[in-house]
Design a protein that fits this description.
The protein is an alpha+beta fold. It has 24 helices and 54 strands. The strands form 13 sheets. It has an 8-stranded mixed beta sheet with strand order 19-14-13-22-23-34-33-30, with helices on both faces. The protein has a 7-stranded antiparallel beta sheet with strand order 36-35-39-38-37-40-41, sandwiched between helices. Strand 25 and strand 26 (560-563) form a beta hairpin. The longest helix has 29 residues, at 876-904. It is globular and about 85 Å long. The N and C termini lie far apart (71 Å).
Length: 1206
């Protein structure tokens, strides 16, 4: 039936958000009035399903009465059922069917480990229970390499079925475009009787084997869970139309709801609600501003941050719960800070989250014996008044929040911290607010917009308690709170459109000749999406169609989505979007069409909110005056109930506005107005006072605040660099690092993606300070890469900007950024020659060069330098583009430091630069007391050795690390500059601290490092150093772990593989096994210690280069045996489809990764060439080989060592 039949207007509609903690319901009564209801999502003693129970409550039905279509027009809901099943790994047991050679591809993924400093590397748990490798293979451009062996697959599928599996994911290489084999496999699975079959081309027809594969597995894993939930709900309401919210922000018929579209089902409703209500609010503003809002949805367990400026922003590639998703989703950034985030004090810093008290037991005040959480801090501060908060607690679910228990627990904490309870509670709230503000800064920097011009739209149960504070932390001056803010996600379900989205990979250059094909594909996608609506008897004329293209520059990975149109329209829209996001354009770079997508939608409920006449100002009725703690003091605050307010009213802060589903706190300096739409608009009317009164003595709240702020500045610089860089190494492999330093050049915070950049930038800064004492002035920027003056190897170029605050004669701080450039000259493209013997052969040396003088870029001089020398840079224009990106990243750091000084004052900022170092130093000193003296000698394949002795002084809590006995500098390129050696030492000692401490110069203060001059770890010019950065650094870290006796060796190599010819150049590092330690096994095929670079996706590799990846699998049995076994290495087989030169730069082909405490060594690596005629030849640890078409390069990477006797 059409929803436009007049008869249907007399029924109820229910809009529901089933969240992790609460289920919210907005019901539209037959007379059009809206009513709301809130209940706990899990309450097994009271009801089976919260959504159904809530509907019965509002309809006044008995506990098991059916809900019928005579009363109810429709139910629209969002649910976290799928998300929770994914987080808790409680989905359907699933079978993965994939291409021969790729059984481990989703486990290995892109090789990177999630947490940089964990010695025990924990990867996300796999979602599939069993794998079948089908004998089939398609090439990247549609060539049939191997037809599908149907009979063999049928037998394996039958075995899996007989073992009880019913859910299957089918993912074949290049299956997104060449679908025949997946279709055949699906038919076999259907014949055998599998009940859930997800194919990768049906789930996500986009290139990228790993993320498409993950998405397909998620779909097979979660769809049966959703099916059961949908059936459970539908059984209680026979015949009632039921719709579910998808991650993309559109509703779909319950029976068409799929696992891959369910992950953000709940939060997406919030964004729809936020967008629709914001559009209405802005349309009614006098000055017709464009709609620009930041959504701030704070719930019990987490906070979702989003951005809306007229159109929904969607991501087509995201990561959720350790799984890479390639499906259209609302762009939402989630922070682990919510009302339930647990509060603790670790002796020096006060910490908030990331653990949450959940719904059960919930925060301390929930009367279930829970821990102190953010909600409790607000109860203590008087910002939540228990009397005005829902009475749903206690054994009979009818009691208020318990304030006494909160007071007792904070009083106990006050004894530990030696400060008043309310000051502690306010401190915790300040930290939580800052974590949320930092998340908003990160998404705005990443997208290139200025948040201070935006309105903060606040919703979710806990949002209103923090809205003014979050806005203040961001310099925003207006907050919008809708009357439905406490249940806005549920409200959004009702306002959402029904939509169907379809996408298809294209991967072709954008030009006039490709437009007809795009048109054809888009038309076919549109027809298939419309057909889905036709099944629901909806007229095509009622549907809206949006057609879009995903465009990126050739050679880069960042695709932007723009409307489909003429060639000129597509180009202009792309350039406008690119300029907004990345602040520059790449001249003369061709555009690629990555994919097309189509959205067909049926418009949702029109948002009709009445416009009221504004009443004259009056004394606003208040129920009582309560005590509220803000800005370090108790205030008298008016407690106003939302129902008592009328449009035109003004409430001056401090005040509390209590509503049925939410509490809004109006902080001192803010005022709340009720608009003609009955929305609350909060505005700052008194300028915010700078907080100079904080003092320079260390304070546990500010210590955490500054730790986070310094880190956030480094991260924002990193995002700016990643966005604006041209080089793929920086943009996609994330081979860069940004940092800030104090006036002496000590590292304060750094956001590393590669540990080898860690401590080594400090050496660069100190060189610049030392050599420019007289000449340095504001507006200068310096650049260097010289390994003998604070650099690592030549492609890593560091740009340093001194920061002068108003009136300073000398720099107050320094900021720096370092990135791995695509080429800096030298004898081979990419500047990583395997056989260099002198530094000149590795490229252009830059030693402390003035790049910008008093704000003017010295471009001509810099280009001349890049073109100089025996082996100049191959692409100086690209070097310059990357250098400009580094200058811009530094400038971002300068601006943020200035803001910080404006807020806190220079003495405070400088004092805390010292305090954060002291805090890190103390953490390392505590670890040193548990260490014992030790020594270790590690042999390299080239005959050199690294010898290290560690001497611990437990009384002084210091350690001496002495590399005396290490080989003299080499004629080969395995020499590592001092900066690299220091980075390795810093990394190892930081990894001994089992806590998230900031990484700064304080970590090195208790350590004395002795590196003999002229040794391979402190070489003299003109020694070559290119392998020092990758190979020797890996050996140093393992030698240090050996001397400490902490863990067995991980693979002491990065297996650097380079191949290319005149047209193509490619470089990758290949992971192996990690070492075992006391109490944990090593992890197989994962990047360890000094590297964490990403590996190119197998489909992208084959699409861009004339090679075929035959397999990349775990090398079973290669990890060392022991009480705890080492991780296995991998076997990577690359077949060349045209003649190329391949170079391997590796180690541990002779000397394996050592075992520890009686454990065995791992297997050594093997470099092997298999010629087309079957002839095999093993090549040494460094080699250059001419490959012909059909030849295969096989790399068996080393396993990690075992720990402890068997």
């Amino acid at each position: 039936m059409s929803m436009r039949d007049g008869v249907q207007d007399k029924k109820w509609q229910f809009w529901i958000d089933r969240g992790g903690t609460f289920t919210d319901i907005v019901a539209k009564r037959p007379d059009g009035q809206l009513v709301t209801h809130k209940l706990l999502s899990e309450n097994p003693e009271q009801y089976r399903d919260a959504a159904v129970a809530g509907i019965r409550h509002l309809l006044g039905l008995a506990a098991n009465a059916a809900i019928t279509a005579t009363q109810v027009e429709c139910v629209k809901m969002g649910t976290t059922v799928a998300t929770n099943a994914l987080l808790e790994r409680k989905g359907e047991p699933t079978l993965l069917v994939t291409t021969q050679g790729f059984r481990d591809a989703l486990r290995i993924a892109y090789q990177n480990r999630p947490r940089l400093f964990d010695r025990r590397i924990v990867l996300p748990e796999l979602l599939y229970a069993r794998v079948i490798e089908a004998n089939e293979r398609m090439g990247a451009h549609g060539e049939l390499v191997q037809a599908l062996d149907v009979e063999s697959l049928r037998k394996q599928l039958q075995d899996a079925f007989d073992a009880g599996l019913r859910s299957v994911a089918i993912v074949f290489m290049h299956g997104y475009r060449y679908t025949d084999h997946e279709v055949q496999a699906k038919e076999l699975a259907e014949q055998i009787g599998f009940t859930q079959i997800s194919t990768s081309h049906g789930t996500s027809p986009l290139m990228k084997f790993v993320s498409r594969g993950d998405t397909t597995v998620v779909d097979a894993y979660l769809s049966p869970i959703l099916r059961r939930y949908v059936d459970l709900v539908a059984a209680d309401m026979p015949g009632v139309p039921l719709y579910f919210m998808q991650s993309s922000g559109g509703l779909t018929d319950a029976h068409a709801f799929q696992g891959k579209d369910a992950i953000l089902s709940g939060p997406a409703g919030g964004i729809v609600g936020m967008a629709r209500t914001a559009q209405l609010a802005f349309a009614n503003m006098a000055n017709h501003e464009p709609v620009q809002v930041i959504g701030f949805d704070m719930g019990g367990t987490s906070t979702d941050v989003s951005h809306f400026a007229g159109t929904f922003e969607r991501e087509f590639e995201t990561q959720v719960a350790g799984v890479r998703m390639r499906a259209p989703m609302m762009s939402i950034h989630t922070v682990a800070a919510g009302g339930g985030s647990i509060l603790r004090f670790d002796g020096a810093r006060m910490r908030v989250g990331p653990q949450s008290a959940g719904a059960n037991p919930g925060p301390a005040s929930y009367r279930r014996g829970g821990p102190l959480a953010v909600t409790d801090a607000n109860v203590l501060l008087g910002k939540i008044q228990p009397h005005y908060f829902p009475h749903v607690f206690g054994p009979n679910a009818n009691e208020s929040l318990n304030r006494d228990v909160v007071q007792q627990q904070f009083d106990a904490l006050a004894q530990d911290v030696q400060r008043p309870a309310e000051a502690i509670a306010e401190g915790f709230v300040q930290i939580a607010v800052q974590q949320m503000a930092n998340a908003i800064k990160k998404i705005s920097v990443a997208r290139g917009y200025d948040v201070t011009r935006y309105t903060l739209q606040c919703f979710g149960g806990a949002g209103g308690q923090h809205a003014c504070l979050v806005a203040d932390a961001l310099g925003m001056t207006r907050v919008l709170v809708h009357p439905m803010a406490g249940v806005l996600s549920a409200y959004g379900m009702g306002l959402a459109d029904q939509n169907v989205m379809r996408e298809q990979a294209i991967e072709q250059l954008l030009g006039a000749e490709v437009l007809p094909r795009l048109q054809q594909t888009i038309d076919a996608l549109t027809k298939s999406a419309q057909a889905e609506f036709n099944q629901q008897a909806i007229m095509a004329s009622d549907l809206e169609v949006h057609q879009r293209v995903h465009v990126r520059y050739q050679g880069s990975d960042a695709a932007l989505v723009v409307p489909f149109g003429s060639l000129q329209e597509i180009q202009q829209a792309f350039e406008k979007a690119y300029q907004q996001r990345f602040a520059f354009l790449m001249a003369n770079k061709p555009l690629m069409v990555e994919a097309v997508s189509v959205e067909v939608l049926l418009k949702g409920e029109a948002l009709a909110e009445p416009v009221h006449a504004l009443h004259p100002l009056r004394e606003v009725p208040q129920r009582e005056t309560v005590k509220l703690f803000a800005n370090g003091a108790w205030h008298d605050a008016a407690l106003v109930v939302r129902e008592d307010l009328r449009p035109g009213d003004l409430v001056q802060g401090p005040a509390i506005i209590a509503e049925k589903n939410a509490t809004t706190v109006v902080e001192p300096g803010w005022q709340a107005r009720v608009s003609a739409l009955d929305h609350l608009v909060l505005e700052r009317y008194l300028d915010k006072e700078a907080q100079f009164a904080v003092g320079t003595k260390v304070d546990p709240v500010l210590l955490e605040v500054f730790n986070n702020l310094f880190m956030n500045i480094a991260e924002q610089m990193g995002l700016q660099l990643q966005n604006t860089a041209h080089s793929v190494n920086i943009k996609e492999r994330l081979d860069f690092s940004c940092a800030l330093f104090d006036a002496q050049g000590n590292l304060i915070a750094n956001a590393p993606h590669m540990p080898v950049h860690l401590g080594s930038m400090g050496e660069s800064i100190k060189t610049v300070i030392r050599e420019n004492v007289q000449s340095m002035q504001a507006g200068n920027v310096y650049v260097l890469n010289d390994p003998y003056h604070g650099g690592t190897h030549l492609p890593d170029i560091t740009v340093i900007t001194p920061v002068y605050l108003d009136g300073s004669k000398t720099p107050d701080f320094y900021v720096g950024s370092r990135g791995h450039h695509a080429d800096i000259g030298g004898v081979t493209p990419g500047s990583m020659p395997p056989f260099s013997t002198r530094i000149e052969e590795e490229g252009v040396q830059i030693n402390n060069v003035l790049l910008v003088e008093r704000g003017v870029l010295r471009e001509a001089e810099m280009v001349a330098l890049l073109q100089s020398g025996q082996y100049p840079s191959r692409n100086p224009a690209q070097n310059m583009a990357d250098l400009k990106a580094q200058i811009a990243a530094n400038e971002k750091g300068v601006q943020e430091l200035r803001k910080m000084v404006t807020q806190f004052g220079l003495p405070v900022v400088k004092a805390y630069m010292g305090h954060v170092q002291d805090n890190a130093e103390e953490s390392v000193r505590r670890v040193i007391t548990h260490l014992k003296d030790g020594a270790f000698t590690l042999h390299l394949d080239n005959g050199a050795q690294i010898q290290v002795a560690i001497r611990v002084n437990a009384k002084a809590r210091t350690a001496e690390i002495d590399f005396t006995g290490t080989s003299a500098q080499q004629t080969n390129n395995f020499n590592a500059p001092t900066a690299v050696c220091m980075a390795a030492v810093l990394y190892v000692f930081r990894s001994l601290v089992d806590d998230d401490i900031p990484l700064n110069a304080g970590c090195l203060k208790p350590l004395k490092v002795i590196i003999p001059e002229g040794s391979m770890l402190n070489p003299l010019p003109p020694a070559s150093v290119v392998a020092g950065n990758v190979e020797t650094s890996s050996c140093i870290t393992n030698a240090l772990y050996g001397a400490l006796g902490v863990m067995a060796s991980s693979q002491p190599t990065m297996n650097n593989l380079t191949f290319g010819n005149a047209q193509y150049q490619y470089y990758e590092t290949i992971s192996g096994g990690s070492g075992a330690g006391d109490g944990f096994d090593g992890t197989s095929v994962v990047q360890t210690h000094m590297t964490n670079s990403r590996l190119t996706d197998p489909e992208v590799l084959e699409f861009r280069f004339p090679v075929r990846l035959q397999s990349y699998a775990i090398r079973e049995g290669s990890g060392g045996a022991g009480r705890w076994h080492g991780g296995n290495g991998g076997i990577r087989r690359i077949e060349f489809l045209e003649p190329m030169t391949a170079s391997i730069l590796s180690n541990a082909r002779v000397h394996p990764a050592f075992g520890m405490a009686g454990g065995s060594a791992g297997a050594v690596g093997i470099n092997r060439v298999v010629r087309q005629d079957g002839a095999q030849q093993d090549v040494p640890h460094i080699a250059q080989v001419d490959m012909q078409a059909g030849d295969v390069f096989e790399i068996h990477t080393p396993g990690g060592g075992g720990y402890g006797k068997l």
